[in-house]
């Protein structure tokens, strides 16, 4: 008899431990940023660009240590290069959708830039741009994807596509705050969660997220971001 391993992945214990740890680490990170000397927006932007990576990685580590302690059930699985290329293309599409959402927001709500410090870091010169790019377009996508797709979407997938894709994307969006970032994050979350459901691997999701965040950073550095 062949064992059914569909339920050997993360479940509600991992979701709850991961998300509670995420909130606690995010609050701690915000408090620590308040102690930065001089309130320098460039420095705050560099540090802030890594926040998602630090917090996501820490929250994943807490979820990982709960029961399973094996990376493969969390989506650390190889995929074909075609999936990775498809994920990169999806990241470009996501950036285009992001522009539509932001311009629509500007037309309906007006000005407002919840990511001003990140724009400041991207435009702060070669070194701040490089550091913010590494933090925001590589480290943060990795940390966030292994938590929100490797744990949350993964665990919710057992309840069907709506829970695994839509509900997990809403959770991902709410984790980014209630502003124009909310619909943007939900959009990215929908695309990444659909990729995860199709492949069972976090790596296409990480590639999508890296391409999307990287395009955002480059556009911001050259003054092309709608909100800055």
From TrEMBL:
Domain CAAX prenyl protease 2/Lysostaphin resistance protein A-like: 128-215
Protein name, as recorded: CPBP family intramembrane metalloprotease
A Pfam family it matches: Rce1-like
InterPro entries found in the cross-reference section: CAAX_protease, Rce1/LyrA-like_dom
Signal peptide: none
Claim: Electron transport is one of the keywords in the record: no
Keywords attached to this entry: Hydrolase, Membrane, Metalloprotease, Protease, Transmembrane, Transmembrane helix
Keyword Secreted tagged: no
One Gene Ontology term of the molecular function aspect: endopeptidase activity
Transmembrane segments: 12-36, 42-63, 83-105, 125-143, 155-174, 180-198
Biological process annotations from GO: CAAX-box protein maturation; proteolysis
PANTHER family: CAAX AMINO TERMINAL PROTEASE FAMILY PROTEIN (PTHR36435:SF1), SLR1288 PROTEIN (PTHR36435)
């Amino acid at each position: 008899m062949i064992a059914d391993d569909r339920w050997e992945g993360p479940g509600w214990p991992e979701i709850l431990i991961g998300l509670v740890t995420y909130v606690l680490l995010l609050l701690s990170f915000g408090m620590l940023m308040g102690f930065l000397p001089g309130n320098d927006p460039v420095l705050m932007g560099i540090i802030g660009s890594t926040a998602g990576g630090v917090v996501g990685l820490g929250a994943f580590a807490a979820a990982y240590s709960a029961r399973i302690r094996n990376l493969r059930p969390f989506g650390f699985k190889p995929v074909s290069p075609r999936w990775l290329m498809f994920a990169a293309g999806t990241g470009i599409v996501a950036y285009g959708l992001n522009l539509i959402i932001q311009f629509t927001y500007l037309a309906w709500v007006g000005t407002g830039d919840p990511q001003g410090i990140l724009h400041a870091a991207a435009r702060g010169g070669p070194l701040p741009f490089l550091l913010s790019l590494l933090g925001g377009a590589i480290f943060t996508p990795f940390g966030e994807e292994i938590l929100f797709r490797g744990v949350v979407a993964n665990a919710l997938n057992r309840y069907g596509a709506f829970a695994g894709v839509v509900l997990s994307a809403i959770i991902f969006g709410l984790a980014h705050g209630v502003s124009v970032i909310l619909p943007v994050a939900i959009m990215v979350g929908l695309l990444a969660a659909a990729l995860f459901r199709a492949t069972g691997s976090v790596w296409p999701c990480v590639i999508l997220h890296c391409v999307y965040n990287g395009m955002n950073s480059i556009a911001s550095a050259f003054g092309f971001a709608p909100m800055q």
